[in-house]
Specification:
Elements: E1 4-8, H1 12-29, E2 50-56, E3 59-67, H2 73-77, E4 91-99, H3 107-122, E5 127-133, H4 137-142, E6 146-147, E7 152-154, E8 157-165, H5 166-178, E9 185-186, E10 202-204, H6 213-219, H7 229-246, E11 250-255, H8 258-270, E12 275-280, H9 283-294, E13 298-303, H10 312-321, E14 325-331, E15 333-334, E16 339-340, H11 343-351, E17 356-360, E18 377-381, E19 392-397, H12 414-419, H13 429-439, H14 446-464, E20 468-469, E21 480-484, H15 491-500, E22 503-505, H16 510-515, E23 517-521, H17 528-546
Parallel strand pairs: 1-9, 4-5, 10-22, 12-13, 12-14, 14-17, 17-18
Antiparallel strand pairs: 1-2, 2-3, 3-4, 5-8, 6-8, 7-8, 11-19, 15-16, 18-19, 20-21, 21-23
Length: 547
């Protein structure tokens, strides 16, 4: 069997071939739609569809459409669709499954379904619905699809509604490849082979990041009680290591994300009833505004353009006019753009006025030296620059904090954590053990030097290849490089094509999709060799359109 290539469609010629195969299948073969002289059938949901396709020697041999937006096509055919489905599921739809007649040996069907289910699982779905033609019910059932409800469609084009769960996918679909029954399917997530013959996988996301094997090994240790002496000793040691890394007196660790850490800061600020100032130049600065509004804080906002540093003269002018301001809150590394805001500069402005500085340091700690000895409150997480698994949040402080009592929820009460002799709430020993293993890798500044060198090489190389970089070098984070694509190129499609090759870049966040940006992040474990390979892949899939 000749090698088949499975991927997400992104090229215009691929979409043209999809429309032709759609016509051949659902007009010529299955009389579902009327004929037209162009012999093309453009699906009514085409602009919302993601197409998984199979190619043989550059020719389209099979396809299906993936879609997670309601209402589904099946919603229009079957009333109360959700009443037929398992409860508590995140549902998506598979449609337009078509394979050319001379290639219907099962391999292409299996490969397309595998690709579809993997794609949906990665995007948070765990149940797929499909209208399966009555002509192929045996094949659908063999793949794990469960029929439900009455037949839909019309005479000559009848379909059986069916669903496939992620669990059935794992048991049924993956076993096809594992048992060697599908020898012609080329793995859709493969990149180029390295010198050892293995296919590389490079994670250049801002999170979750690629972690060192030592961190994974530490996570797999048998769990133990958070009330045990061993856990408490390790917990205190982890806090000490955190404080030593950034030069603070105290660090409180929570189970949660960076959002929780910033909620804790907002709750702590709410206890003082002080007026503040929030500086914004990106998505995560805007989120600080949201945190503050939810806690009903009194504050003003100074905004700069996305990709621009703050105008520090405006900050000083504002503070001169408003002497009631008692705190400033901002994002150190604005992940949405790659701008590194001037923490020492803001500390200097505030120090002479006695203003407290609060900082979101979530994407800066672990990627460059960060000194927080003069900061009032700062947030951090385990799963970005510190290169551990996501799930732990940290709030740093340099002063004694009393409990907020009933004024704030117990889980947000920073003083409650600070006063605890041990651990106030249930805590995963596995997460703590992995975090501590990651922190041990920061005993020298070699990681910071490596990230800086790789960043300098990356920015220079990207410019050489004709790419536009968002943040200027004098205000750029070494860990986040944002690539601005022209309107003619889809960042999402480029990202999908790279993912097929085993290279993960950041492109799916709403703020990136809206601006057609891609990001290469150096927060996890990555060598210069793998980074160079990833840059080559980016050029391969889009250089002719991006340049």
């Amino acid at each position: 069997m000749q090698s088949l290539v499975f991927r997400i469609a992104s090229e215009q010629w691929e979409f043209e071939e999809i429309h032709k195969l759609n016509y051949e299948t659902f007009v010529d073969e299955i009389p579902q739609h009327g004929r037209n002289p162009d012999r093309k059938l453009v699906d009514k949901f085409h602009d919302q569809n993601t197409y998984a396709i199979c190619l043989l020697n550059g020719q389209l041999t099979g396809m299906l459409a993936l879609r997670g937006q309601r209402p589904f096509s099946l919603d229009f055919k079957l009333e109360n669709l959700d009443s037929y489905l398992p409860c508590g599921r995140s549902v998506c739809e598979i449609r337009l499954l078509a394979v050319r007649k001379n290639m219907r040996n099962g391999g292409i069907f299996h490969g397309l379904i595998k690709m579809a289910m993997k794609y949906f699982e990665e995007h948070g779905y765990d149940l797929a619905v499909i209208s399966g033609t009555t002509r192929q019910q045996k094949l659908y059932r063999h793949m794990g699809f469960i029929p439900f409800g009455p037949l839909v469609g019309k005479q000559g084009a009848l379909y059986q509604p069916m669903y496939l769960s992620i669990e059935s996918f794992r048991e049924k679909v993956e076993s096809v490849s594992d048992n060697g029954n599908d020898p012609g399917v080329k793995d859709a997530t493969c990149g180029k082979a390295n010198s050892a013959g293995k296919k590389p996988f490079v994670n250049l996301m801002p999170g979750p990041v690629q972690v060192h094997q030592n961190v994974l090994d530490a996570f797999r240790v048998e769990p133990f009680s958070h009330r045990s002496d061993h856990f408490i000793a390790e917990f205190k040691e982890t806090k000490r290591m955190l404080c030593e890394l950034v030069g603070t007196l105290h660090a409180e660790i929570f189970q949660g994300s960076g959002t929780l850490a910033n909620d804790v800061i907002a709750a702590e600020l709410s206890l003082g009833h002080f007026r503040g100032l929030i500086l914004v130049n990106g998505e995560f600065g805007e989120r600080l505004v949201d945190h503050a509004e939810r806690q009903e804080l009194e504050f003003d906002v100074i905004r700069s353009g996305w990709g621009d540093p703050f105008d520090y003269s405006l900050v000083e002018q504002h503070l001169e006019k408003h002497d009631s301001v008692e705190w400033i809150w901002f994002v150190h590394c604005e992940t949405s753009t790659g701008v590194l805001n001037d923490l020492p500069g803001i500390l200097g402005i505030c120090r002479k006025r006695g203003i407290k500085v609060c900082v979101d340091a979530i994407s800066s700690i672990g990627t460059l030296p960060v000194a927080l000895g003069d900061v009032y409150l700062a947030s951090c997480v385990s799963g970005k620059g510190l290169a551990s698994l996501p799930g732990l949040a940290v709030v740093f402080h340099n002063h004694e904090i009393a409990s907020g009592g009933r004024k704030v929820p117990r889980y947000y009460d920073l003083g409650y954590y600070a006063a605890a002799k041990g651990v106030p709430f249930t805590f995963s020993s596995n997460m703590l053990h992995a975090f501590r293993a990651a922190l041990k890798r920061f005993r020298s500044d070699s990681r910071f030097k490596m990230i800086r060198q790789m960043s300098e090489w990356l920015r220079g190389e990207m410019r050489k290849r004709g790419h536009r970089i968002l943040a200027s070098d004098n205000c750029a984070s070494p860990a986040v490089t944002t690539i601005v694509l022209p309107p003619s190129v889809s960042s999402r499609q480029i990202g999908l094509r790279l993912e097929e090759r085993g290279c993960l870049l950041s492109c799916n966040s709403e703020y990136l999709l809206k601006r057609n940006w891609l990001q290469i992040c150096l927060m996890g474990e990555c060598s210069l060799e793998n980074l160079a390979w990833a840059v080559d892949q980016l050029s391969d899939v889009g250089e002719e359109n991006i340049a």
